[in-house]
Description:
The protein has helices spanning about 1-35, 45-50, 95-105, 120, 180-190; strands spanning about 60-65, 70-85, 90-95, 130-140, 145-155, 160-165, 175-180. With about 190 residues, it is α+β, with helices and mostly antiparallel strands. Strands 1, 2, 3, 4, 5, 6 and 7 form a seven-stranded antiparallel beta sheet that branches. The radius of gyration is 26 Å and the shape is elongated.
Amino acid sequence: xxxxxxxxxNEISAFLVVVFGGGAFAVLVAIGLVLFYGPSGLYDLKYxxxxxxxxxxxxxxxxxxxxxxxxxxxxxxxNFTYFHPGEGRWKKVVVDREKYxxxxxxxxxxxxxxxxxxxxxxxxxxxxxxxxxxxxxxxDKYSTVTKTFQEVTFAYQGDYYRIELHEESxxxxxxxxxxxxxxxTALEILK
Length: 191
């Protein structure tokens, strides 16, 4: 009987060593992944901006600004707003899908800026930033209300642009990107 008790104790001890050893190994692997392979906080543009291929498939539920109730929204249009210095006024144009595709193809490889500083964010608060908006409307043939699904803002005469991250939040969240001469290039493509 004594040998059976020792044998059972040995089996239980071996089992506990395997269980706790596996748990300790899993914790070490998790710590290693967080320290060495953790999220960078950077955004690939292809995951932050609505792809031209997804425009027709865009359908999501959000609060209607008209009724305050949750409604399905679908794609309506793409608008580009910029300041025309020669005319001294703001201009708004509807962007066709070909132009949007051309713009998207230009920036699709961009990755957001790490360490956004006040020097970068202040560029969007002064002068005349241009703005690209993806507009949606309720999936209801009787409603004429529209709202902005996503916004891309270009720093005036600059190299930075930012994309609104679409989240269900009252505050806008942005991902900032660098692309040489993006303001000038966006004007050439989108207007």
